[in-house]
Amino acid sequence: MRRTLMACLAIATIVVAIVAFMAAAYQVASLAEGWFEGAGRLTNILFLMLVFVMIIATLLTVAERKWSAMIQNRIGPNRARIALPFLRDRPLGGLPHLPADVLKMLFKEDFAPANADRLLFNLAPVLAFAPSFALFAVVPAGPTVLMNGREIPMFVSNPDFGILFVFAIASLAVYGTSLAGWSSNSKLALLGGVRASSQMISYEVALGLSLVGMMIAFSTVQLTTITDTQAQYLWQTATDFDFGLPAWGIFLQPLGFVLFFAAAFAETKRAPFDVPEGESEIIGYFVEYSGMKFGMFMISEFVEVVVLSGVTAAIFFGGYHLPFGEQWLSRLALFQQNPWLFGTLLGSVFWIKVVLLCWAQLMIRWTFPRFRYDQIQALGWKQLLPVGLANVFLTGALILWDPSLRALAVIGILEIAAMLILTFSRGTPERESSPARAAPPAGAH
Amino acid sequence: MAYDASQDPRQDVRERIYIPELLRGLAVTTRHFLRNLFRERDKNPSVVDRKGPNLVTTVEYPEERVPYPPGYRGLHRLVPREDGKPRCVACYMCATVCPAQCIYIEAGEYDPADPAPQSRVIEKFPTKFVIDELRCIVCGFCVEACPKDAIRMDTSHHTPSEYTRQSFVYDIPKLLKGPPVRHPSDPWQKRAASEPPPHEPSEAHARIGEGIGISYQGLHSSEEAAGSPTAVPIVRFPKSS
């Protein structure tokens, strides 16, 4: 019982912290906007990237260890303690490991191999880290609200080419990876770099194609417009409290979501697509890195997880919009008088979605074994690519037939239902009788 | 026969389209995750007896310890006598039998004028008794070999960790611990020799026919000696832990 309460308390703390930071982001942006036009976007860089993305990413480093432990029936890191009277005997959920890790990485020797290309060797961590960090610039984390007569946006930049920026910058990250592999002058690192670049190439096309359906459906590539389009309802009850099926990307394009998630997962180079790292065989492109340079690779991986969650939430899960009741909430007097409160609420919804998606990614990472190299290529070229193409044509045809997106949603929900039926038709894995598995299918040997 | 990787053994449509299997896998891990996150951990040191929805099987060692099985003997100790000195008589039996050659003994000689009765009846004692615990293979031969029950493996503790190798070389102060042990066969437990009779032994006993009818008082004195508390053999065994 005590543990349940503590877990709920921890979750509540996360939610409260998100709300507090979001409120602070709106207030600071409003203050800065009074200084000069566009200063709010600069503070958004600070809040969205440094506060939200960086804090979530660093916490994910501990969360990955702790959550993986829970998945595998272990306890996980709990030996680092804080030497204060009341904290001495408390593991604090493994959180003290975070400063301990950071200090360790900062104070370790920054070793470079003798024959490494110094310039590229030092440049590679930056090239790996910066693009994944810059990705978040176009993701809207909250609605644009009116404060003190000025419009306060909650994104860093809102270019017309939104998703294309994501694709362009995401593919830049492979430079850091392959340069790290090449400049280390190590065979294992080079293998990692080569594997990383070939994996990137095979998933880049599928990644692009997977979102074409969404671009067709929403008639835009701008992420703010995509997010706001998802606030509409496909079907809606005629009550005061609005309730219905929102036009979220996951309902319109479940296939596109699966393709995008798989391809983007491959881009983050995490299991089951962690062939470039392959700890058990080649250690990976960062094998020669030590200290904080290795830490840069490490943290860029988690930043990529957060950014991928942000992009996925913005495109497929309605961004900062609530699934229902949002119009009813916006009509409340409290939110009418204080628009920033409404913005805080919606922004918190966005970050909660991001955290949940990060959790989902970590669950996937700790559930599935690594794909073999040929399986990765086969999946990228022979499955994701044709299915993505078919999805584009199907989506286009359905939107031509019914521009209200409802036909698309019907097909999408049918796809989801078919998947669920297939999933549940087999029963839970633990209850399955073993003799059925013992008989190998014909042609297995 | 080599495994034919070119042919996909997955025949089931749910395996071939991968996502249903993927979701089922996620269901398993999520179930484990939620159970271990939200439910209290059973800290029963006997892992197989753990109950409840939490599936963690870890025993967090320094705080929680698995009890040793009843047959476990543990680190050896030198058994003390009642006066606190080791029972060891430095016979070198243990050092001789030790397959790891981890026991080193230097013998000393008791002063016959020592007032302590135990020391007076024993000739030798160890001035040095050293066991290198890093060499020891815990075979128990020394316990078997000891004729004096002076070394035992009944502490039920394993060798504790140390910072230096030298700290694993145990000498008498470190080895000598536990409850003292007494045996009736201990030489200092033996009854003293019979007291001489209180009367003057007379020549008359030796002569045939003389002294008949005189009670032999030495009998009574020996009965008294048997009733004295020092001669009652007391054997105490240490509490088994």
Characterise the protein shown here.
The complex is a heterodimer of chains A (445) and B (241). By secondary structure, chain A is mainly alpha-helical. Chain A has one domain (2-423). In chain A, 65% of the residues lie in helices and 3% in strands. Chain A has helices spanning 2-33, 39-71, 97-107, 118-134, 162-183, 187-218, 223-229, 249-252, 254-267, 291-316, 326-330, 333-337, 339-367, 373-401, 406-424, 434-438, and strands at residues 145-147, 150-152, 233-236, 244-246. In chain A, the strands form 2 sheets. Chain A has a two-stranded antiparallel sheet. In chain A, β3 (233-236) and β4 form a beta hairpin. Mean pLDDT of chain A is 86; it is low at 431-445. With 241 residues, chain B is an alpha+beta fold. Among the domains of chain B are: 11-67, no CATH class; 77-175, Alpha-Beta Plaits, CATH 3.30.70. Chain B is 22% helix and 9% strand. Chain B contains 7 helices and 5 strands; from the N terminus they run ααβαβαβαββαα. In chain B, the strands form 2 sheets. Chain B has a 3-stranded antiparallel sheet with strand order 2-3-5. A two-stranded antiparallel sheet of chain B has the order 1-4. Residues 215-232 of chain B have low confidence and may be disordered. The A-B interface holds A 1-4, 7, 67, 70-75, 78, 258, 363-364, 366-368, 419, 422-423, 425-426, 428-430, 440-445 and B 1, 3-4, 7, 9-11, 13-14, 17, 19-20, 22-30, 32-33, 36-41, 54-58, 60.
Give me a quick take on this structure.
The complex is a heterodimer of chains A (445) and B (241). Chain A is mostly helical.
List its salient traits:
heterodimer; A: 445 residues; globular; B: 241 residues; Alpha-Beta Plaits; 3-stranded antiparallel β-sheet; 7 helices; 22% helix; elongated
Q: Radius of gyration of chain B over alpha carbons?
A: 34 Å
CATH architecture of one domain in chain B: 2-Layer Sandwich
Question: Structural class, from secondary structure content of chain A?
Answer: mainly alpha
Order of helices and strands of chain B: HHEHEHEHEEHH
* Strand count of chain A: 4
CATH topological fold name of one domain in chain B:
Alpha-Beta Plaits
Q: Give the N-to-C terminal Cα separation of chain B.
A: 57 Å
Mean pLDDT of chain A: 86
- Bin the helical content of chain A: 55-70%
Which spans of chain A of ≥5 residues are poorly predicted at pLDDT below 50?
A: 431-445
Gap between N and C termini of chain A, in Å? 50 Å
Discrete helix count of chain B = 7
Oligomer: heterodimer
- Strand tally of chain B is 5
Largest sheet of chain B: 3 strands, antiparallel
